[in-house]
Amino acid sequence: MTTPPTVAVLPGDDAAPEAVHAAMTVLHAMELPIQWRILPDGHELAQTMSREEGEALVRQAADECDTVLFGSTNGQTPGVGYFRWGRQTFANVRPIKWRPGFRSPLAEPEGIDYVIVRENLEDLYAGIEGDLADVAASGLADGPRVGGVSRTPIAGGFSHFAEAEGRYAIKYFTRANVERVAHFACRLAQRRREQGHPGKLTCSAKTNVLSRSDGWFVDIAGEVAAGYPDIEFETFIADDFARRLVASPHDLDVVLLPNLYGDIFSDEGAGTIGGLGLAPSGCFGDDWAYFESVHGTAPDIAGRHRINPTATILSAALMLDHLGLANQAAQLERAVETTYAAGKHLTPDQGGNASTEQFAEAVLNALTSA
Ligand code: ATP
After folding, report:
1. Rounded (10°) CA dihedral 270, 67, 362, 93
2. Ligand 1 neighbour 135 (Cβ under 6 A)
């Protein structure tokens, strides 16, 4: 890491730059020991350079800077796949924590405080898709039988795949990658245990139906967790777990999920504390990390100055912690908490009528008056 650390800021597309700019107002005012490199948003990138040049700029920022604070992309901002697969950020950390003033739909949200670790590189996100006829040609389709019956609505069974119009997508895991993300989750559970959390790892997937893929993922997580005797390990089938996220979220500490379930369940978790505007995230590899909110680009509210920047500000707090600026991270979190506890300058998704910028100003005031 350089001294001071360098941070590239990539605002992204649609409404995301509004959230990033609001967060940057607060971060600049904190006079942090950080060297900032502010990159253009997706629209500006498209106006001023070719896609290839934009992609090169984004990659270069990732390679030259210690980390990136990123809005979100709808595809217009190019090259961000490099942050994930190029830099092998295999663990997507998504804290789900309710704070007083967050507009949760639950009757008793007090005390919800857990972290989802989503495997970030494998599963269906490889994007390997194609025609079912290719599966028939490979011979793979002849295998699956449950109680002697093919699991397909195609008349004649899987061997008739070639005649049916259909598509497939591949879900895959590799042992080395599952092991490293499981170790990451266990170490996180250990760190949280030191801070007074239970020290528990929960792993979930559709193990009953997909025993050789999802079941294997959970088995490997269990094997890894066995090497951490201070960490309790439990598993739930994905559909049961979806219910538990709403019915008993207080029981959770660290949750390890395959990529797709992690994506879906973290939106569900965000919903339980009050919505997507409140959920931060960081993506960690062995030697690099970047930070972005859980939400996407919120295209439906772009240009309206009503996107809630809390998720981006809290992602920045995770980033400060990662850069060794733990005190400033805690200070920023406290300012967000003060703003919600006061409840006077909240964005429309939280029941208020403050603009994105007014909310950020309130956080800034809370920081300076603390
Ligand atoms: P992606 O697939 O890129 O994650 P998405 O399809 O999940 O994106 P989002 O951009 O996350 O979509 O938005 C989903 C809904 O939540 C939209 O109605 C959007 O306006 C709302 N939303 C998302 N983020 C925020 C925010 N920070 N503040 C207010 N509303 C938000």
Report:
1. 20
2. no
